[in-house]
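hey can u check if this looks right to u? its 174 residues, i copy pasted from the old doc so theres a chance i mangled smth
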Amino acid sequence: ADLAHHVFRASFRDAAHVREDTIDAAAIVDEDQPSTFEVDELWIFDTGCGRDLVSNEYADAYADFIHTALSVSLNTGGGRQKTNEQLHCKMEFGNFKVPVKAYVLKSTPAVFTAGPRCMAGGFAFVWLPGMTPGVIAPNGLIVPLLVKHNIPYLSLRIINLVWIALTIYVMWIY
C-alpha cells in the first residue's frame, strides 16, 4: 500500500501535461455504462498509444454509449484511421472504477492506454525483465497482466481472481 500511495501522489506532478480529451482523473463513473470487459474480453495495456481504442465491431452493440468526441486521425497498424466517436464505458479494478472513453475505429484491438493513467490517474505499470508485468491501481490492487506474444493485456478473469484472493486474505487476517 505504501508504494501505491507514493506512486499515486507522485503521479499528479505532471498532470497538466495530459490531454483533456484522453482522461479525466477526477471523473465520476456512470454506473449505467457497460464494463470494458462486456465490450471485449481482453484490453491491451498500451504504453505506445495515447488514447483508449475499441473496434467498431464490438462498440456497435453499445450504441447508446457512443458519443461525439474530438475528431482525431490516428496512424495504426492498419493505416490511417479517422474518428470522432467515443464509447463511454468503465474499467473495474475491484472496488475502483475507471471511466474509459475509447475512440471507436473500424479495426483495432481494444486498448487501455497506460500513459495518461500513470501520469495523472494514479496508476503504476511495472514490467521487470523475465517477470510477469503488472499494474498497480490507485486503490492499491496489484493486477498481473496476461502476456500474449509479448503484449500485456488486462483480463477480467485475472482481476477477479486477484480481488477474490485479496478478499479471502483480508477476511482470514481479521
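The radius of gyration is 16 Å.
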